[in-house]
Amino acid sequence: MADNLRSQSKLKEMALIVQKFGGTSVANPDRIKNVATRVAKYHAAGDQVVVVVSAMSGVTDGLIKMAKEIMPLPNEREMDMLLATGEQTTIALMAIALHALKVPAVSMTGAQAGIVTDGVHTKAKIQNITPKQVRSLLNQGNVVIVAGFQGQTHEGQITTLGRGGSDLTGIALAAALKADLCQIYTDVDGVYTADPRIVPGAQKLNEISYDEMLELASLGAKVMQSRSVEFAKKFGVVFEVRSSLNDNPGTIVKEETRSMEGVVIRGVSLDKNQAKITLISVPDRPGVAAAVFKAIADANINVDIIVQNVSHQTDAPSTDISFTVDKPDLLKANKVIESLKESIGYRAVTTNEKIGKVSIVGVGMRSHPGVAAKMFETLARESINIDMISTSEIKVSVVIDLAKGEQAMRAVHEAFLGK
Amino acid sequence: MADNLRSQSKLKEMALIVQKFGGTSVANPDRIKNVATRVAKYHAAGDQVVVVVSAMSGVTDGLIKMAKEIMPLPNEREMDMLLATGEQTTIALMAIALHALKVPAVSMTGAQAGIVTDGVHTKAKIQNITPKQVRSLLNQGNVVIVAGFQGQTHEGQITTLGRGGSDLTGIALAAALKADLCQIYTDVDGVYTADPRIVPGAQKLNEISYDEMLELASLGAKVMQSRSVEFAKKFGVVFEVRSSLNDNPGTIVKEETRSMEGVVIRGVSLDKNQAKITLISVPDRPGVAAAVFKAIADANINVDIIVQNVSHQTDAPSTDISFTVDKPDLLKANKVIESLKESIGYRAVTTNEKIGKVSIVGVGMRSHPGVAAKMFETLARESINIDMISTSEIKVSVVIDLAKGEQAMRAVHEAFLGK
User: Which of A87, A384, B13, B35 is deepest in the core (most CB within 10 A)?
Assistant: First the structure.
């Protein structure tokens, strides 16, 4: 039982485990009781357990709605004061649910748990954690329940950590406590070689490296925010992504090991959330690309892939520049580009929302040449045209017609990961 | 305008005012905006304003309901952690509502405002307040919004103050800040000579002494808990009870002044929430009453009026003992009494829920003999039988048939306060 709970990791008899549960796992009193039952099993097995929880799903949105009813752009310090109540509610209810199972448990706000952040409200960064109280409560036999997503400045101001903040709390606490394992509970069984809803043969990965996880996170596999993975990588926190709905072992995320390199490709992802902008016949002179992407960055728009083709003519050299942005930013990006028309002097601009980005990720591809070629061949065999290409050391991405995205994903998965 | 707002009190040009708003005044974003508009007027008039708020009405009950769904008797420390979120939500929304009116405002939890309590969770007592931060924010021109009902122990544990806790926060902050005025906003216009719904001729009092207010509070006039009035009396905090629904001046509660003694009776109250228990034919020997009321007190039941009649016989002296308790405690009290039947040896016990307690209150009656007699005569003229009588230096209470309670109240009000 305990072995299954602990999954593939080789834990000591009595381990210190940080378990993070998201908003859907604690959405109502019944689900909170379910989580408590899980936590109680670890406690009964002799483990020291720190539980990190999010706000009950819907609560944060409800609070934001009320604030916006009063003022469209509420002050960020006050939003932190407001939103921090969401997690505080969950920790108290979780402690009560553990008491109902006769498990000693104490809840702590981020501030009480010693999570100190900078003063950038609504997206504060953790500066340090002094979990003295947490450790002392653990040593007295308690489960300690910590409010995710929140902290406190040195001056005692309540802050929140922004998107993915509760994952970050879990991983940062695991680092500060030198926990034996950090478990991130979610509504999927772990990290898959591809989205199982699209690729029926997709397999759950037993393990994955931080870098691969980061690429997948940034490629649209929505398991976790990059930020928490980066933090885990920086502090060497081994964590497990697993389901709060069953006892299946999840996926262990850790530093790359030699054995990982034997596997060329770790996963295939499809990102349907990109849109493409193309500037046609841009004068091919120094500084043009800089001007374009400076303006886009100033508008706070993230650019993913950039492709510039070779010049068409030699007498009045001009080129095409294409790049992708998140779909919701397309309108804004288009406006920025149109405002540059005179200063840059391009001929026309086109946009395309019907694109999909298929990526393969794996640390093994570093030592296996020909991975990109094999991907392109696979797509060619499926008569899928490649629009843009982007590569890094451990991934290859191609932009294709959105309508062929899932077909491409299945074909590529079969080619690299099929059995 | 500002004069009307400031009511009868003679305030300096720029005053420091503490304003407390209860749950119904902040029940939703619209009402929060209304309160903000009121606060903004004081701020615009140059006053320094500290706003104390309760949880939005319904919020606390909703939190309690969730906790009890998980466990019938949840841990008190965790209940404090849970319930403190209610006021924290309101302070943030109130700050945002003031920002929407371009009024600089900063919210503070009880802990941040320097409210230090003992560690008795769910009914903590304020030990001291160090409002350094509050004062500094006021001096920078901010309205400071403080979460009512909550504090923090020296060790950093979140506590709540129990029933009437937000009033107490307001009055205690006014004391600590040496505020010029403390305003308790509620849904009535102030303190009346009697409940205007029962006595059409009831008049709003311009002022009332702490002691009179205390008697009224304990006699069923539900304006405020005794506890906050006692605190105000102890620290000499002058406060005003007034309506959050209009700009009418309210009732100033303060130390007794010579002029108050000219008025014999300050008010008439009717308490319908009492029930009577009578022990019939109790052996009239020493220690019997002690045994009865020790057992009742051990069961944590408050007794209001106690009456013991003279003995019936001289050979085997026996007597009747009657006392009143809050109606919800009647069953429990009856059980306690029945458990004593053998050891005490009374003949029978009867209970009566259909009683009403009519009281007159006024510091002036000390120097005006015959007040009680006039009250009894008035009731006799109305053919209302008196069941029990209880007096203090500044009040006379009679227990009568509940059905005649309102009639009695009107007659007594007419006799003492009619125009």
Answer: A87
